[in-house]
Specification:
Elements: E1 2-4, H1 11-20, E2 28-33, H2 38-49, E3 51-59, E4 62-69
Parallel strand pairs: 1-2
Antiparallel strand pairs: 2-4, 3-4
Length: 71
């Protein structure tokens, strides 16, 4: 579970990248972010990094993302 409250892009993306460096194939990571630009930046990041976005939903003032490492 990674809470990225109060961080503005690109810091949330960098924090996710640090977590991903510790993950193995098929591991999953739950991300909670409240930056308004995170959604568009994160979608591009997932595409470029070959990360599977499993789900996205509103969770109060947060966007909640569940991702899976594909490679």
């Amino acid at each position: 579970n990674t809470r990225l409250q109060g961080l503005i892009c690109p810091m949330p993306i960098l924090q996710v990248r640090l977590k991903l460096n510790l993950m193995k194939k098929d591991d999953q990571l739950l991300i909670l972010a409240d930056d308004n630009t995170f959604h568009s930046e994160f979608a591009r990041f997932c595409y470029l990094a070959d990360i599977k976005l499993i789900s996205k939903k509103e969770c109060g003032s947060f966007q909640e993302y569940l991702i899976q490492v594909v490679v």
